[in-house]
Design goal:
This protein is an all-beta fold. The chain has strands at residues 2-13, 19-28, 31-35, 40-43, 46-49, 53-57, 69-72, 75-78. The radius of gyration is 15 Å and the shape is globular. 1% of the residues are buried.
Length: 79
């Protein structure tokens, strides 16, 4: 599994001249990923994510935060 952190401005600029978010690698490590039941709900134009997978690591790297994402088997997931 690869954990990536957002990198503001590294993705260039959008049509309005605002910096876009790119992603840089934070750490690569072993992980056990197990599917859980879950779904994403949309209410009052707000998205509420539910847990869909459990990720277990033996991480030596501290500081993984909710603004990061996980790359696993060619898919992206938020932390």
């Amino acid at each position: 599994m690869i954990v990536q952190q957002p990198s503001i401005g590294s993705g260039g600029k959008d049509a309005f001249g605002q910096p876009t978010v790119g992603w840089t690698q934070y750490v690569t490590q072993w992980a056990s990923v197990s599917p859980l039941r879950g779904r994403e709900l949309e209410a009052a134009q707000q998205r509420y994510g539910e847990v869909t997978h459990e990720v277990v690591t033996r991480s030596e790297k501290q500081g993984i935060t909710p603004d990061m994402r996980i790359l696993w088997k060619k898919s992206n997931s938020t932390v």
